[in-house]
Amino acid sequence: MQDINYVINNYTKDNIWLFNSAGLFTGNVKYLFIYISNYRPDIFACYISGDQKNVDYIKSLGFNACHFKSKEGAQLLNAAGVYVNEHCKEIYPKELLNTKILNLYHGVGLKQIEKKADREYLYQRIAKKHITYNEQFSNNMCFLVTSPFMEKHFKEQLDLTDDQIIRGGYPRCIYQSLYEPVVTYNHDIISQAGLPKDTKLALYAPTFREKNPKNFLYLAIKDINILSKTLEKNNLCLIIKLHPEISNDFYFKTLQKQVGQYRNIIFWDNKNDIYEIFNKIDLAIIDYSSIYYDLVSAGVKNFIRYIFDFDDEKHIMLYDYQSHTSGKMCQSFGELINAIDEYQTYSDNNLEKIKELFWSYDDENTFENIINQTNQFKIGNKGVLPTFYSFDVFDTLIGRKCLIPKGIFYKVMELIKASDEGFPEIFHTDYVNIRMQAEANCRELLIKTIGHYEISYRDIFSRIQSVYNLNDSQITKLMDWEVQAEYENVIPIDEMVKKAEQLVKENETVVLISDMYLPKEVISNMLAHVSPLLNKLPLYLSSEYGVQKASQQLYLRVYKDHSPWRFKEWIHYGDNATSDGTKAKELGIKPQIHKIPKINAYETALINKIRNYNSYLLTGLLSRMRFNSINEKDYFCYAHVSGYMVPYVAWCIRDAIDRGIETLYFVSRDGHFLKEIADAYVSLKKLNIKTKYFYGSRRAWRVPAMIESIDDEFFSNFGNLVGVDNYDKLISSLSISHNLFQKLFPETGLNKSSKISPAELVALREFFSKSTKYHDYLIEKAKEERKIVIDYIKQEINPDEKYAFVEYWARGYTQTCLRKLIDNAFDKPSECVFYYYRSILPSIDNDIRINYSTNNISLIPVEAIFANCPHGTVTGYKRELKKIVPVIARARFDAELYWSLGKYLKNFVNEFYSLPFTSDVSTIERHFSSFAFEWYRDHQDDPVLVNSMAHLLYSEASLGALREFAPAITSESLALLKQGKPVGAFTRSIKMSLARSTPSIKKEYQEYLKNPKALSAKPSNAKQKVLPTNTSKVKIKEPAKINQHLAAQTSDSRKIRLLNKLERNPEMFFSDSNKKIVRLAGKTAFNPILKPVLGNVIIKLSKKIIH
Length: 1107
Prior knowledge:
With 1107 residues, the protein is of the alpha/beta class.
């Protein structure tokens, strides 16, 4: 083959022609290729194939050939001006977008083809290529026709225009008679068969049979022996050549093996081109194949029409068979035998008329005419074609509030329970399964029934009726209830609806396609609710047409209804990866698969816990939000935090209204998000109740609330001294300055560097609760601090209206303090009503505690969320511009989560309380709230929880250190855990912490849990220190001995810290010590001279001393 670079540089694009035929080197393509190769040196002709054997064979004949995937092939595809084939091919290289396609086609005839074809076995493939390549067929393809009759025929069949028509004969029919014959195999068929030279050649070349493609020949040749004898008697040699699609016919293959028995019958090998010997054929036995017309063009005179199965095949005929063919008509094998005997005496005057009708454009200049007309053809005369659009309906344009059909069935089951129709008892508890099983039964039957492809709505209920012996009234109720539930659940999928509506407004062609059992009228009503505009579009419904997208037949119905296909491409929007995706793509449709909300593990567990229609409505809400949210923190707020807070707040408001309460005060800081929820709920429901944010805290109220005496609660385990472990925290909790403490209580021996153990804290509580000096000090200080607190209360609270406070989770002592302050402010006793999700203390006297739940599940996760605010705890009040304002320090917080809480909790309120729940909303509220906490309890390693709250800064006690809620476990903290340090000292959730930890830490921790004895530095039977509970037995030491006592209480954590430091950097351990003797020992032992001898000794000794 010529150098490709030379070809590209020396031939114009229009003079570089590539040729390709289906598989073998045959047909019109072959003969035009040979003609140009031999007689048109100005055109570079190259045969291109995906079969390397074919390429090598053509090269062996002396012609140019290359493989599609070769370097030369790639270059030529980009350079070629003309691509020649004889089909509307199913695959075109993408490089040919700007290349002329010369379609020589593979046969004239009587059948409907291409865009007009409706033969089932080919229809999918035909539809696919026209859907895929129609723009190329319309703008790039010129088409060879052989007569005015065939020109009209092909224009109709392929929707061709005048400018696409190339007029001429078929190269394969006339080349051998006009030019030096092509010989690629031995043409002396008679001699090879060992027959006399005067033996005539006959051909039987039946076409493809749809109904019997693998055993057709046995029906055609009833008796091969009689046929053989008849041929011999008439001095004939018969070639039996089968269509490539039926060449694996069982009988044909069997006869091929017995070839020696039938000398005058040749079972043709299709690798040899039968057209090379057309001029040698004397008799042709034909059926419905277009090869008949090629034989007429090649000059064959004698024909027998053998159409024993005409009744089965006549449906493929577009024109009258008898008047458009010639030869003796035979409808049985016996008639065929007789016709062979008489073929030389039979004459048919119709032959010349047929040749004129089909071949009038054929002449000796055909080859040049084809080339010249192709060069004159211009690409793109039809311009840019429109796009065809289709949309799935369910989960594409229409969604369900309950998300999935199962929710609809639950709604029907609830209606069954409430009805008096006398349904079977099992329907009250198991209708959902009965309904789904009935549909599955119908689909199973469908699979096993020939000719049926889709079930109907009525089929499902007929199955239920027959199994459970229901009457017509009951079935009508079930069907009507389900339809009504579908109507109530309709919601638009806004993005897709807007897309479809915009296409309609732009005058694009749009249809709707749905695999759905519901009747068309029902779906039309649902569409009307979503979009009246889209409801006017053609709706292709599987239950109406009896075929589905899943089988591709519904797509093909759409294609057929829009024939002739005049679109550039078909874009289909849907959600199902198979029916809307794979199956559409297999037809050349470009699927646009969008994701749809699907239920995750959290939502599935919610459904499984509640198991009613309302749970599906709620789950649908959560799933859609998650689908549309941009990050998981939004979902955490909407789906998890809402369960912690929203049901409780809504209940507070409803209960308050029932009690005649006019104003609800939401106490800071926990009340921040609770008030936002309340305001959204009040606004949505248009309720007559006021809400107000009330600044306060235990720190701001407890001391001022000590009016005449100090409450016992002040010194309890849950009082003001909670979390005290050093001197600074102690004086802060006692509300006393350092100087005054040292002046009043020198006997404690405590100073700024003092650490306080749990046992010492118990003793200190006892000490100060009995101290007259401290009592007198605190009462006086409370009196002074109380003034501004009282002013703030008077400023904020209207005593003449009925009010209550909203807290969340507490013991209840802070409420007691506030009640005392309010009594003092307004100089009269009054009920102080507090709402709690759950409080520890019950109502006592005027301290009214109204609880939402009896569930004693831990509410600890809510505390970390409450703390995620820009402001910290209120530490007091101050006067500012004649107004009392809280003293609040700014706090560190997760701004992204704070924003999400503010937005999505309110969104949840508006959307949740707009759902059409079928029962009292308080039931689903309580179910949801309990579930949210249970999920936290059981799934603390859920990534949504871990990523949203584990990092939040949180202090468990009022004086506690600020730390992450669940920090990652480190090697240091793991070492302390092994030493017996409680998990709570490091994290509020070990599962969350492990989820944030490295794989090696996780593995080590799991190994520790499996075998704590082997891995723990402490003996397994080591007992934890038990704090004294009887404070009367704990005595404060004399002042002179207090430091000695503190030193004796060295904690385990300090031991571990010292040991770790000693291990990591021994020299620094000694040099950093605050004991002079230790520093001196280190200096001596690590002297360069003594270090080798004393270094290790003193390290070992120090470890023993620490232990």
